[in-house]
Write a structure and sequence with these properties.
Length: about 450
């Protein structure tokens, strides 16, 4: 990683932070992730995609309006204590401190909410974290961008309804929610219970202890329940283990629907034929045909500077998810520059404004070369999610095939739950929610 120039460091040391800020054309974004352990495929893939996108911007565009993106890796091992440690190590680095932090863990996100507010450093929990943090009035520095867990869950039930021939056909159906026994895994229990009451299906929640490589007892329960569908809310090694266990009891894989953290190549390839027919949700698509991916290959990998050591993972679900993470991070910075100074490094507080006023519409997606890779995104003070739609994919044994359009979430269910939970959080924390009509 490039270091701040010696002259800049000396200027800062000499007590001229304004001069240092003016000279330092660098924007520091920590890459806190996990490259070891049972969740390494997800952590390494997403981190690799983020870094590849930062390298692309630096090589092709000279950064963000001339401001180079810099980063430093920190190993969290998907552990809350290590995640907090990495945050503390990285928050004051670079000319303006950490610009934005991706915790890459729901548990770590929970642990950092108070800290990020105090430090004025935005957290991007893209597709994970607290669903109620979508209400920016109570969570000004948390951004569960693109789509949150509760939104995803309503889209999943819509998809199951489509497969059953209509939402009215859900009445009397049995659904098992097989979940990772962690903050992440438990996050959708409330919304699933709410939907069960609305649509009349029965839901059974079955926990799988970390890391998830032992599931015999859980699948014995599944066999006894004889559900119509199983929702796989897994992570890491838990996912292929579940698919193999399902095959052993002859539970049809095309009746298993995974969340987007159970829907990458690394989740199905180790399961072999046991994964064929399996469905999974997604908020980004795989592949190298997108113009932005072609640019990554041209400007980064052809120069021997790519982050992914295993070239077969380039364009995989986790890798392109990292590309999307890089896009939303840098577009937030770019938007902040529009207000606070084009070509200048932005502080976390300034980038918080940029993220909250970000509008990645269809035109901008095309300019970014990301048309079809992700959905359009419009963020506001009230809505830190900004999207909410979900696509569904099916594994054919060799590749993921897209089997749906973008399915919108059911905000008639989700938004009242978000607002009620956010209001309760604000009350518990003695926070006065912002008045969005006063935000500019």
């Amino acid at each position: 990683m490039k270091r701040v120039a010696l002259a800049v460091a000396l200027a800062a040391t000499a007590g001229f932070p304004g001069q240092a800020l003016a000279q330092a054309k660098e924007q520091f974004v920590p890459v806190n992730s996990y490259w070891v352990g049972p969740y390494a495929p997800g952590g390494s893939g997403i981190a690799g995609g983020m870094i590849d996108y930062f390298k692309l911007l630096n090589a092709r565009d000279g950064g963000i309006n001339g401001v180079k993106v810099t980063w430093e890796k920190c190993e969290t091992e998907y552990r809350n204590d290590r995640g907090v440690e990495c945050y503390e190590r990285s928050k004051k680095k670079g000319p303006t401190g950490a610009t934005v932090v991706h915790p890459l863990s729901t548990g770590i996100t929970y642990s950092l909410i108070d800290k990020s507010l105090a430090d004025k450093i935005p957290l991007i929990s893209m597709g994970y974290g607290r669903a109620d943090s979508s209400d920016g009035r109570a969570f000004p520095y948390v951004f569960p961008l693109i789509t949150n867990y509760w939104s995803q869950n309503t889209a999943k039930i819509k998809f199951i309804g489509m497969k059953e021939g209509g939402m009215d056909k859900l009445k009397g159906k049995k659904i098992v929610n097989l979940y990772h026994d962690s903050a992440y895994g438990k996050e959708t229990i409330p919304v699933l219970d709410a939907q069960a009451k609305i649509y009349g299906f029965q839901v059974t929640h079955i926990a799988v202890p970390h890391p998830g490589n032992e599931q015999q007892a859980q699948w014995l329960q599944v066999r006894q329940i004889k559900p119509d569908w199983v929702i796989l809310r897994g992570w890491g090694v838990m996912n292929p283990t579940a698919l193999k266990a399902a095959a052993k009891i002859a539970f049809p894989r095309d009746k298993i629907l995974g969340v987007w953290w159970s829907g990458a190549e690394e989740d199905v390839i180790p399961a072999g034929d046991a994964a064929k027919g399996y469905f999974a949700a997604g908020f980004n698509l795989p592949g190298t045909s997108f113009p932005v991916m072609q640019d990554v290959l041209k400007h980064v990998y052809s120069k021997g500077k790519g982050e992914m050591e295993d070239k077969s993972r380039i364009g995989s679900i986790y890798h392109t998810r990292g590309i999307v993470a890089g896009i939303v991070s840098t577009e937030g910075i770019r938007k902040a520059q529009e207000r606070f100074g084009k070509g200048k490094p932005m502080t976390g507080e300034q980038v918080r404004w940029g993220l909250e006023n970000m509008n990645i519409d269809a035109k901008r997606l095309k300019q970014l070369g990301a048309e079809g890779l992700m959905q359009p995104l419009k963020v506001s003070c009230l809505d830190h999610e900004g999207g909410g739609a979900v696509k569904f994919l099916q594994w054919d044994g060799k590749k993921w095939n897209v089997v749906s359009d973008w399915i919108p979430s059911d905000q008639s269910i989700v938004r009242p739950m978000i607002e009620a939970s956010a209001a309760q959080y604000a009350k518990e924390k003695n926070i006065t929610p912002r008045d969005c009509s006063r935000e500019k």
